[in-house]
Structures are given as structure tokens and as C-alpha cells.
Write a structure and sequence with these properties.
The protein is built from eleven helices and 15 strands. The longest helix has 17 residues.
Length: 328
């Protein structure tokens, strides 16, 4: 364990997270980071985007796009910010992030807390020169009366500044959000997002993020809707509301989405399931429990074009991305 781990673990999980973001934001503004370099050993092209390496930062880490340059400087091939909603919202009551150290996992019930898409996009626009590949993950406000319209609004705002836009319908922490993974709502949502992603003659790549708790039938619905609707990539998956019997940490009983190492086997199984259903018709991005080069390789071999990570950083530290890339 690195020297900084005991210091961060002495703090409440959310305070430790905020401190990490602040440090990386300051590092980025100081001009210190160097974005990942593109070379033929690690570069991969997905949805027309050339990623310098296949290891990305998942949404949920840098919700408000404060530390994009800092995270890219850690060696990530791309950073996905958000989830961002049309209006600012505080999210769920605290405490809402819980470490599971014995299991190397995390439970969160944040609830799309963010300062609103306009504030975050202003930060993205201010990144000059552009430090690397930036995805923008969007969602609906908790109190919205028309969530599909929220996605259309958010996609339209994000598209001019995004290398790709992700529509996130898989968080378990906004009541009713996962209902959008079913038809006919899913088809309507994708159609609205597709119409909103055009910037002049440019068609900004659109990704869809689904939950690992979908049944086989539910995954078939999601994959087919994505393919039929012209979605450019499927992110499999988000956090899970399930709890493996192997969990040992006291915080395992907390309500919310489970991520980290305990999610790895389920995330891999759902990736394989999505690959079987898609038959190569849509690129797949694997998230959930990626914490080593071996696990990243396992996902790439199972059909993923890219991988994303988040919770493993809590336990493995900021050098993880480069270690994974080097290990590949």
C-alpha cells in the first residue's frame, strides 16, 4: 500500500474522493500532465475515434469535468466525465459512498450529483490545447417529468464538445431510471438522442451504458435497440444491485450500486452475453471490476474493444492505468 492510502482511508470516502479530484485538478492546471501518446502497440480505433490506448476512466469519477487533464496525465487513453444532467442537482443524502476494503469494492448511492451540464461543459471548452479523448456521459434529472427530453437536451449540449456522448440509463440510484432499458422507452430515447447528436454535418458517436442486472432477455432488447438505433458503442456495464455471497465487508449491506472486484465475474459474463447477441454488429466497452492488466486482457479477449475502470483506483492508486497499459 502506497503512503497516501492510509491518509485517504482515514477520511470519509466522499471527502477522500473530493480531495483526489482537487489535487488532480490543480496538477492539470499547472500544466504538469502529459496525455497518453498514440502508438501502434496500444492504439485502437472505435466508432471512428483513435484511442491512444484501450484503458479509460469510467464516468462517475470526474463528474463535473474538473480534473480531465490530470486523469489523462495518469496514462488513461480516454476520460469519460459525468454523469451530467440538464439542471444541477445535489444527489442523495450523505453518507453515500462506502468502501468495502476486505472485498476491494465500493458501494455508492450518489444519485447523479453534479453541478449541471452547462458548468461542466464550460470546463471542457476551456481545455486548450485539448489534452486527449473526452467522452461526456449524460443523464436525466431525478425530478424530471420528461426524462427522454432531458437526454435529448443533454446530448445536444454535449455533442459540440465531446469526442463521444454516452447515454446512461443504468444507474440504480435514480428511481425509475433503469425502466428506460425496456421498450418502447428505449427506442424512443435512442431516437431522441440520435436526433440531438448532430453538429452541423458531423455525427458525434453515441454510446449506450447498460446495467449488469439485465436478464438475458433484457440484454437482447438493449443490444438490438442500440444496433437498430444506430448507436456506435455499448458500455457493459454499470454498478450492480446484486450482492455476491462472498462479500465480507460490513458495508456490503449498504443500499446502492456495488462496483470493484466483486463485480468482475458478473461484468465479464454480461460482456460475453452482449457479444453473443451482437455478433460483432456494435463495438463493446467493458466496465466493472477491471483492476489489473490480466483482467483488462480478459475483457479484450472476450470481445471488448475498450475497457474502463473506477473503483480499482481506490485500492491500486493513481499509477494503475499505466501499469495496465504496460501489462497489455
Amino acid at each position: 500500500m502506497a503512503w497516501y492510502h492510509p491518509l485517504l482511508f482515514a477520511l470519509d470516502a466522499e471527502r477522500a474522493h473530493s480531495l483526489t479530484i482537487a489535487m488532480l485538478e490543480a496538477w492539470g492546471k499547472a500544466g504538469t500532465p502529459m496525455a497518453a501518446t498514440t502508438d501502434d502497440r496500444h492504439a485502437v480505433t472505435v466508432a471512428g475515434i483513435r484511442f491512444p490506448n484501450p484503458v479509460g476512466l469510467a464516468a462517475g469519477v470526474d463528474k463535473d469535468a474538473r480534473a480531465v487533464a490530470g486523469f489523462l496525465g495518469l496514462g488513461f487513453g480516454f476520460v469519460e466525465v459525468g454523469t451530467l444532467t440538464p439542471k444541477p442537482q445535489p444527489g442523495n443524502p450523505k453518507p453515500r459512498i462506502f468502501r468495502l476494503p476486505e472485498d476491494r469494492g465500493v458501494v455508492n448511492r450518489l444519485g447523479f450529483n453534479n453541478g449541471g451540464i452547462d458548468a461542466a461543459l464550460a470546463r471542457v471548452a476551456a481545455l486548450a490545447p485539448r489534452p486527449g479523448i473526452i467522452g461526456i456521459n449524460v443523464g436525466a434529472n431525478k425530478d424530471s417529468t420528461d426524462r427522454i427530453a432531458d437526454y435529448g437536451t443533454a446530448v445536444a449540449k454535449a455533442a459540440p464538445l465531446a469526442d463521444y456522448v454516452t447515454i446512461n440509463i443504468s444507474s440504480p440510484n435514480t428511481p425509475g431510471l433503469r425502466d428506460l432499458q425496456s421498450q418502447p422507452e428505449l427506442g424512443q430515447l435512442i431516437a431522441a438522442s440520435d436526433a440531438a447528436r448532430h453538429v452541423g454535418s458531423k455525427r458525434v458517436p453515441l454510446f449506450l451504458k447498460v446495467a449488469p442486472d439485465l436478464s438475458r432477455e433484457g440484454m437482447e432488447v438493449a443490444v438490438r435497440a442500440a444496433i437498430d438505433g444506430g448507436v456506435d458503442g455499448l458500455i457493459v456495464s454499470n454498478t450492480t444491485i446484486s450482492r455476491p455471497d462472498t462479500l465480507r465487508s460490513a458495508n456490503a449491506k449498504e443500499t446502492g450500486g456495488l462496483s470493484g472486484a466483486p463485480l468482475a465475474s458478473l461484468a465479464l459474463a454480461k460482456l460475453i452475453e452482449a457479444r453473443e447477441i451482437a455478433g460483432g454488429a456494435i463495438p463493446l466497452i467493458s466496465a466493472g471490476g477491471v483492476g489489473s492488466a490480466d483482467e483488462a486482457r480478459r475483457r479484450l479477449d472476450a470481445g471488448a474493444s475498450l475497457v474502463q475502470l473506477y473503483s480499482a483506483l481506490v485500492y491500486e492508486g493513481p499509477g494503475l492505468a499505466r501499469r495496465i497499459v504496460d501489462g497489455l
